[in-house]
Recover the amino acids of this structure.
DNA sequence: GATGAATGAGTTTTCATTCAT
DNA sequence: GATGAATGAAAACTCATTCAT
């Protein structure tokens, strides 16, 4: 039947796409987007150069596909937040750390791309929106906790997390992530008189 | 002192070498190392492509020369430190923020290179050393201030600063650097019971 | 007769082969042979790329098949000619103009291929033969009409027709084909003293 | 002196550019623009592929440069026209034939490009303008010569010339250009009662 | 017959680097 | 020192063709 064939092709396609995206993410994260050639991706994925272009219009389109997948995945962070402000902050910290641990390569890639603005322009609006939401949530929560300058504290809080992630991403094997996380919680997730 | 580097620039201001490095730093910081061609650097510096190779063996050697200058800072940071632990932390924060403000382009470049391991490999040992010294100083100081886990607190402190710098570097015009700095001092530079 | 080709198309109308040739002719004529990919032809014909290779050995073989059909015309042109020399010339003009109008795309393609010698090399002998026959017929006719240099006049006559067709093919919507045809007849299809 | 060096470089550049344009025109005219790769041009010109891009931004820019040069050259056709209408037509015929003979390859290239509209879009306005001028001149002249439909006659006249050129371009060695030219003059450059 | 995933040779283009002057 | 013409390796991308199903 025709369906069988279509299914088979669908499977082939998905398997190849997955292989390509896996190889590309790995190489992009490790060597940088600019330093990773299609040839290397194809070699790592065990396919020919040309096949990539059956699935993605360009090298950049491949990157976009990888980023989109990662962003879809991370959308769930702000769901199911606790009501209690202290608990909420702790939850955000825990969830964020878990996400970075789980998708280390993706976050490494994303962070490295931050400095090549042109490649990220497609996603810039989405990022700005998320950042704003994060700051707003933080501002509101630090206000509840009695902080005198909740918005700035939210920014500092975000910066501290990003700083930790930066260090962790750069040497994930050595970094005492768990301990730093605990101190981060102690330092920020508390009543401010 | 940061003045050292400035002096060096002063001395070379009129020389081709200085013009090359100035143009290169600007372009590298703005457009990225990989996206900046020798042609553009030469044009911006007002010299010929060939002359570059009289001074530097390669594009990477030019980069290394630029980076080398940045390493002077760390040395000067740890000079003339106050005795008092609280004052010391405040001093380090103030000096670091000032350095990043003064040499924004250099730090933007350095941060962007963080994710191109190969390019930085020459400096990796030096950076590791500086980082260790910074952590040791922090550890000692937080101990003096009575923190129960001074080493981890030093790491968190360093991460928070780097996070703030990261955000500032990415949008230097919008970022409320001064306010965040004050909060950073309030949050970290204090007695811990 | 031109009907021959049409019949052939009728018979194959529903078949994949006819759909392929129809789509290919359209695309070749509009976008050029070189700029038309097999993928686009297959998509336009509603078949798979692979199927094309069941019918034709290569892209060029497909082109050759399309061109072969056009050669039928010349054969039919010289059938049923009037005896009277003036009437004969008028008949040739009318029939040729009608053929170009009816099969505009085919003639557009053929003309554009004129400048890609390699592609036409298969047909070069056939074309040469037709041209020679046409010139001979013209020579004979202009002789009957009393022209002092009938062969050269035949060549000029053929060139004038081809020139008109060239202009018409390049902007079929604007060109005053009918008026120019009338003048062509007036200028050439007459007694030369 | 600096001037000497600049002159020397200027000469080098011009000589390379001339070699490139000569090779390109030859190959474009013979094999078609699309079938001629940069590699082949470079090989024919005895230079490296890369050098082309020192002088032209792209393959298309090289083509444009070649076309522009040819058009500048052909601009002089309509200068110094005789007053007498018959003599004017003869003059146009003679000058046009001479131009095509002198720059055969250029005209072959230009004609072949007529069917790849996209490449010519830069020049389309210029061509339209020239064509219009030519038709207007012809219309006016045939009117002077007493032709009842001078505009259409001008179009036929232009078509006849283009047709002759087309045939000549396609087999320049065999074509009896001189004789056909004489007949063209006899047929068109005369009083129409 | 029919499909479309997969291939790989070929194309345009970029750019760090060399070198004759 | 200084120049910029010239090189060539490598990059992104295209597409006719093959082949397992």
């Amino acid at each position: 039947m025709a369906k069988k064939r279509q299914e088979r092709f669908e499977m082939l396609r998905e398997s190849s796409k997955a292989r390509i995206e896996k190889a590309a993410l790995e190489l992009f994260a490790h060597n940088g987007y600019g330093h990773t050639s299609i040839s290397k991706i194809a070699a790592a994925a065990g396919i020919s150069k040309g096949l990539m272009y059956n699935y993605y219009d360009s090298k950049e389109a491949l990157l976009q596909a990888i980023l989109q997948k990662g962003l879809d995945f991370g959308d769930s962070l702000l769901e199911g937040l606790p009501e209690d402000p202290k608990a909420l902050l702790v939850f955000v910290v825990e969830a964020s750390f878990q996400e970075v641990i789980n998708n280390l390569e993706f976050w490494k890639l994303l962070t490295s791309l931050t400095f090549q603005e042109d490649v990220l322009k497609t996603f810039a609006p989405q990022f700005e929106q998320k950042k704003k939401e994060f700051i707003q949530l933080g501002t509101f929560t630090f206000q509840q906790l009695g902080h005198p300058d909740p918005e700035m504290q939210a920014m500092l809080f975000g910066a501290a997390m990003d700083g930790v992630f930066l260090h962790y991403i750069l040497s994930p094997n050595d970094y005492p992530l768990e301990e730093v996380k605990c101190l981060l919680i102690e330092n920020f997730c508390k009543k401010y008189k």
Notes: Chains B and D do not touch (no CB pair under 8 Å). Chain B has a mean pLDDT of 89.
